[in-house]
Structure formats: structure tokens, C-alpha cells
Amino acid sequence: MTRRADAAPERWLRKTGRGLYCAPGDFYIDPSRTAARAVITHGHSDHARAGHDAVLTTAATAAIMRARYGAESAGAYDCALYGETRRFGDVAVRLLPAGHVLGSAQVVIEHAGCRVVVSGDYKRRRDPTCAGFEPIDCDLFITEATFALPVFRHPDDRGEIAKLLHSLAVFPDRCHLVGVYALGKAQRVIALLRESGWDRPIYLHGALIELCALYESLGVALGDLRPVSGERKKAMAGEIVLCPPGALNDRWSRGFPDPVTAMASGWMRVRQRARMGGIELPLILSDHADWDELIRTIHDMGAPRLWVTHGREEALVHYARSKGVEAEALSLVGFEEEGG
Amino acid sequence: MKRFARLLDALVYTPSRNGKLRLLADYFTAAPDPDRGWALAALTDGLAQRQVKPALVRELVERRVDPVLFRLSYDYVGDLAETVSLIWPGNPARNAEPDLSEIVERLRVAARTEVPGLLAGWLDALDATGRYALLKLLMGGMRVGVSARLAKTALAMTGAASLEQIEEIWFGLEPPYLSLFAWLEGKAGPPAVDQRLAFRSPMLANPVELADLEPLDPADFRAEWKWDGIRVQLVAGGSEARLYSRNGEDIGAAFPDILGDAKFDAVLDGELLVLRDGAVAPFNDLQQRLNRKTVTARMLADFPAHIRLYDILFEDGGDLRRLPFDERRRRLERWHGRIVPPRTDLSPLVPFAAWRELASLRDAARADGVEGLMLKRRDSAYAAGRPQGPWFKWKRDPLLADCVLMYAQRGHGRRSSYYSDFTFGCWRGGAEGAAELVPVGKAYFGFTDAELVEIDRWVRAHSTERFGPVRAVEPGLVFEVAFDSIQRSSRHKSKLAMRFPRIHRIRWDKPHAEADRLETLEKLLNP
Q1: H or E segment at B472?
Q2: SS3 assignment, position B426
């Protein structure tokens, strides 16, 4: 493609009530309601919804959507490899790794001499469970902004995992109950624990079992995982039990021996947020880019124009403008604040 | 500083009281003098450093960080110390990390112009946890869930003294409390303080319901009104006097009228009130006098303070606390008749023969600054703390009203990123459809954390305007508000003020048009 200096992507890519829409290719990206054609960046439920007619995504994301939504998940899947091009009319589309969760992708859209990249959710640091983000030059970069404030600087993963292992050493008689999002965070925490040498069984709340099994079937080794419920809870002293965040404070969490309540999320950076959630051991582990990763990515993509969505747009827009980038907030409807 | 920073961090994340006590006791045992004394002062709110104001901290951070990005971050995080601790671009190579006592002692002697430089140097040298501790230490308002009493309870765990013994000498101690720690460690005797002006741990009552009372013999009990002020202890001896809150905090600076008239030798237990022409003024009026370092002559005239006496603990140096209640009451009456101290009167006993009779007296007495009744066994000694059995408080059932949420303000401490203080109103005037909402009260508790998260989400989704930390919301969410009474007030647009309002239930189901009207609340006013 020959890229043109006067590219005006706002003429053919716009936000609608359903989400971001590419008119010449007649497709939506992560639409919030059912669409005839949808390009899906990753499997989190605020991006991947059930019921579209045709879906273009990665094979891993398709597998995740099938696991979550079953037969109703989509009319038909077109699974693309990273870097493989598809054409819709005179629009070329390909997916590149976004480093967010297994199967996550940026969407690269080329039309009328203009290259647009929709980041989806992403992070820049290494993740043993998924392919790393690949930056690419573009004319317009549409970025997420979940942690787009300079108070959010995620520390090194290994240090956070070490905090959990240290607590286990200090409190060997207490169960360590770790709140994790079911898709991505759960598997990443397990993989990081394995890298740090924790080879004991890791115990799972029922809601995490299926996606962990799916990751394993897609080649991500997670070691010895076991379900825990009922009477077996009593035997969890000194063990690591993972559960969805919502289970930390509900009835399910009763019956564990003197649990230490931990939570793995980028929001744990703000101590009063952790305290509000009753978290004793905050683990700052995020699948989203922190402030430094966001500004580094804006620099790496080299785009003269930036649209910011999905989070704290104002700060990133302000920063980008101060660096001479033409930046705007793209207030997409239908996105909720989901976990970090 | 590291040890203190780690303590604060651990306190923030430790929800249980016992866990906090263990952390505090470990700290007080392990930390050296005078660090631990300064830490104790900070935790008990005795270490306000007047030189370090939020405006100075903001000014410093805006020199290092883009002010727009700082303000957006502050708006999100909600707590200044936390925002600055996270956003400050640290530079640990520049300075050695300071000790807690070094910080306190250098600030004590620093000239005003030196303070910004000192503070910036320390912020550079510390990590985020250390910066947070430093800013909390210097600006006050720790909000780590530790009350002065909890800190003193932890002290009592570390050494030879009981909580009551510590509380009784606390008023005479100064940071960094070297003599206190020496005593706790058995290296010295109790610190020498003038016991004549000491605070004595007060006797507290347990809440009770009619069903709990039925099996008890009414003849064993005396009843008195529970006045709607604040419980105080007035201690006078020699030519001096002190006024303490029930936690032993010296609140005398705001009440020179009371202290000036206390020309006797006694320790008295009573209720601090604002009294005009013999009538108890609304609690709001008393609030105008509380929490002040000084008061103007105008305030003394507008809000005259008064103590309604319940009990006498010491008379002319003699300890009466072991005497039965009836005997202390007789002594109190005789003493009061003899001295006739100004700005005091006796809280009358309420005669009754049966519990049900007393219940109807209690319900009828919504007027006149009464919150409910106190029941005291006639043979009860005056015992520190909250013993089970001898004393009960029997509060009235609350009043209820359905009100519409109008404004939400961000909270503090662990709620600093949530909208958790709610102003609500009732409908006034107009024909159908033309009614307007007028604010009738504000409440910030009565809901669970989970409910708060839901309300916060609702507020953010239904805001119409923002003024700093406050958002106006469209009418839509109804709270069932409980309150103890309602009074006339010129300070509010509705001309009403609720006493002790709290969110009783969230009426997600109730259409806002069906919330209560102002006239309904006016009917609840005392006649």
C-alpha cells in the first residue's frame, strides 16, 4: 500500500452506537450489539459478544468465545493467523499480537492510502501465556487508556509474585486466596508462579477451570491444577487458591483456614481501592499497559493522529497533544470498565 | 522511616482490629526512641505540623509534574498524599533516606522558607510507600483505621500498664513520650503527672431493647434522660480545670466559659450542651463550638455552653467511684446545692414504676434535646469501660423518610475514590410535575461496601454537574433515611436539619416522584 499524507480516516471509520464501524469494508470492531460482520480483538466479554453473523478473529479468541458462549457464539468464524491479510471490499485487515491475553490482537486496517491500528487492550511487558505486542507504523492509532494516568506505574511482575510467596512463607498456616479475572489474569498468575518455582498444586474456583483447560489445550502449560470446594477447603492452609474477584467476599470464600485475601490487578496500585475491596495483599499485576507503556507505544507507533478510548482518555489526550500528536477522545459506547 | 512506612502500609491493608493491635504492639516494641514516640503522636493526632499544608504539597508536585496530569490523577485517586506518593518522580540517589525523628526535629526548628526544600528532598529520597507515610505524617489525617484508643490499647499490650492507667495519665504526657515507654518497659515508674487534673476513664452503657428489660426488676434501676449533646468529664482542682471528651481528649480550648466558672475541687460526669433560656439548643449549635482551638466572644454569646450533670466521681479529693449510684447521686445533689456552680444543672431522675410506662415516656420525649433514656442500677459503682449489666442506654426508634439523592461527594480514606457522602432532598411546592427538591440532610453511612460500589456507579452514570469533589445527579435514586429527630434550622434551604441521619435502605425500586414531601417532615418537628 502506498500511504498518503492527506489520509482522512474519519471519512470511513467512525464511532456508532454499536461501536467502531468501517463503512467501506462494512464491519465493526468489537461491536457492543450483534452485527453482520465483526472483527474481535480478544475474548473479554466487553469486547467479544455472542451472536454476530461473521466473526474475524484469531483461532485462540474463537476458541475462547466458543467456550464462553457455546453454539450461539457466532454464525461463522474466520480465524486469521497473526499477520495474515483479509480483504473486505477495498479494505485490507490483518491482526497483530497485542500482548493482552491469549489470542488478543490489534487490528490493522488499510484503506485509501491510510493505515489505522486499533489496539484493543494491550500491554508491553512480557507475558508467558501470550504473544508479545508488535508495534507498527501507522497514520492513526486508536489506543485503549485503562491506566492512562501517571499514578499507574505497574511494578515488575516478579516482585509482585515474590510478595505472594513471601506471605506464604510468613503465614504457612493461612490459605492464600487470590482474586483473578478468569480470562488471562488467572493463567498469567499461574504461569508466573511456575516460573518462580512454585510447583505445588494450585487450586481453582470452579469458574476458572474451563479457561485454564482451554489454555492448556492451546499449548500453555500451567502445571498441576485442582478444583477446590466443600470440605476440601479446610485443607488449604499454606496453599494458593485462585478465584474470580467476586468470590473473594461472597459465601464461597468461607470455610478456608484463616485466608489471606489477595487480588491481582492494576487497580491495586491505589491503596485505598485495595482497602475498600477488603484486600490484605494487593498484587499489582495488570494485563493493560501502564502510563509508561502507553506513552512508549504512542511513540513506537509513530502515528501523527491518536484516538483514545476505553478509560482515562483526558490525560493521554493532553499528553499526546503536548508532544505534537493530533489527539482526541473517542467516546465509544458500550464499553464498561473491566478488570485490569 | 522505613519501619514507620511499613507499619502504615500494613495497617491500611489489615482489616481486623486484632491484626492492627498486633502490628502496633510489634512496632512500639521494636522501634527505637524517639521514633516510636513521634509515630505514636502521629497516630493519636498529636503531631500536626502546621508548616506543611496541602497547598504547599500541591505547589511542589506541580513543579515536578505536568499540572494537568497531576490534577487529573488527583481527581481519580482522591487522596492527596496517595496521589503525590505515586506520581512524584523519585530520585533516591540524591539524598539519604531520613529517619522519622530527623524529619520531625528538623521541621520543628526549620524556618518557613526552608520547609519546601526539606520536603522536596525527603520526597526524592523516599520510595512511594515512604512518601505516603511522610505526607500522612506531616499533613495529618492518617486514616489507617487506628483510633487514639486503639493505639493506647496496643501500648497496654506491650508493657506493664493497663489501658485505663495509660488513659488516666495521657493528658499530662508530651511527644515523644519517653517517660511513657520507659514505664511500659519496666525501666522507670509511672510518669509523674499532676493527678488532680487527670482524666478518669468514664463508665459507658450498653444498648438495650424493651425485651431485654422485661425480666429485670424496675425497682433496681434509676432512669435519666439521655441528652443530645456530647458526654464530657469536667475536672477542677486548685485554680485549674480541664474539660475532656469521653475518650480523654482535652477539648477545653473551645470552652473557656465552662473552665472559667469551674471554681471547685471535683470530677464530674455530664452532658455538654448549648442551652438558651433553659432550653437545649439543637446539636448543630453545639457543633459550632466543637473542634476549635479558640472561640470568639461572639460565639460565646451566641452559643452558650452548659453541662448537665449525671454523676460525681471525686469530691474535694475524695474518690466516690466505689459508692453505689444512689449514694453518689445524693452526694452530687448535696454538692451542687452547696456550690451552685454556674453553667451547670442536674440531669433529673425520671420516676417510673414499670418498663412499659417508661417506654411511653421515652417515645413521648422526642422534644427537648432528648435522645432516649439511660438506665442505671441503683447499686452500681462507677466502673471504667463498658461493663455488662449495670448501665443501659435505651434510645428511641429512629424516624424514617424517603428522600431523593441530589448531590454526592467523594469520601475520604478508603473511600477516597468513591462517591460516598450523600445529600438528599424532599419534594416541595408546585402542582403535579412542578415540584422541586430541597435538600434536607446529608449522610455517609448505613450502607455496605458492596452497596457503595453500586451507588458510586449510579452517581457516575447520572451526574449532571461537577463542582470539585461534588457531583449533582439527576433525580432518580431514593434512600430511606433514618434519623433521630428533626429540628428547625436557618442554615438549610429547607429550614430543617436532621439529627444523626443515616441511610437505612436503598430504594432502588421506588420511583423518585413518590419520595416524601417536605410537609411530611415538618409534621415530625417537635411541637
Answers
A1: strand B470-473
A2: strand
- What does the pLDDT read at residue B137? 87
Q: Does domain A157-283 have CATH number 3.40.50?
A: yes
Domain spanning A9-151+288-329, CATH architecture? 4-Layer Sandwich (3.60)
Determine how many CB atoms are found less than 10 A away from the CB of residue A145. 23
One domain, residues B319 and B467:
no
Residues 300-329 of A with CB under 8 A from B: 312, 314-315, 318-319, 322
* ipTM score of complex: 0.91
- B383 and B413 inside one domain: no
Q: Provide the residue type at A201 as one letter.
A: P
For residues A17 and B461, what is the distance between their CA atoms, to the nearest angstrom?
17
> Where do the DSSP E strands lie in B266-398?
266-276, 279-280, 305-315, 318-319, 344-346, 370-377, 391-395
Strands A105-111 and A176-179, by their bridges, are unpaired
Q: Is the Cβ of A256 closer than 8 Å to some Cβ of chain B?
A: no
Which helix or strand (DSSP H or E) is residue A295 part of?
helix A291-301
Separation of alpha carbons B306 and B280, rounded Å: 9
Alpha-helical (H) ranges within B65-141 are 67-77, 80-87, 100-109, 115-125, 128-139
Whether residue B69 and residue A319 make contact (CB cut-off 8 A), yes or no, is: yes
The more confident residue out of B143 and B327 is: B327
Whether the CB-CB separation of A26 and A111 falls below 8 Å is answered with no
Mean pLDDT, to the nearest integer, of B344-349?
95
Cell of B93: 540517589
Look at B390 and B93; give whichever has higher pLDDT: B390
If one compares B84 and B17, the residue with the highest pLDDT of the two is B84
φ/ψ of residue B526, rounded to 5: -70, 140
For B33, the grid coordinates are: 526512641
State how far the alpha carbon of B491 is from the alpha carbons of A11, A51, B254, B494, in Å.
56, 57, 22, 9
**CB contact (8 A) between residue A272 and residue B414:** yes
CA distance A262 to B326: 55
Give the dihedral sign, CA B471/B475/B476/B478: positive
Count the alpha carbons within 13 Å of B428 in the hemisphere toward its beta carbon.
13
Mean pLDDT of chain B: 89
For residue B49, the model assigns a pLDDT of 60
Which chain A positions have a beta carbon within 8 Å of B417's beta carbon?
Answer: 270, 272-273, 276
Nearest alpha-carbon partner for A120 in A19, A199, A270, A241: A19
CB A275 to CB B417 under 8 A?
Answer: no
B384 plus B408 within the same structural domain: no
Q: Do A150 and B132 touch (CB under 8 A)?
A: no
Q: Is the dihedral of CA B191, B197, B199, B202 positive or negative?
A: positive
Residue type, B98: P
Q: Are residues B409 and B513 in the same domain?
A: yes
Instruction: Look at residues B320, B147, B156, B173 and name the one whose alpha carbon lies nearest to residue B247.
Output: B147
Residue B46 to residue B164: CA distance in whole angstroms: 19
Q: What residues are paired with B481 via a beta bridge?
A: B401, B503
User: Domain for residue B158, yes or no?
Assistant: no
Residue B389 pairs in a beta bridge with: none
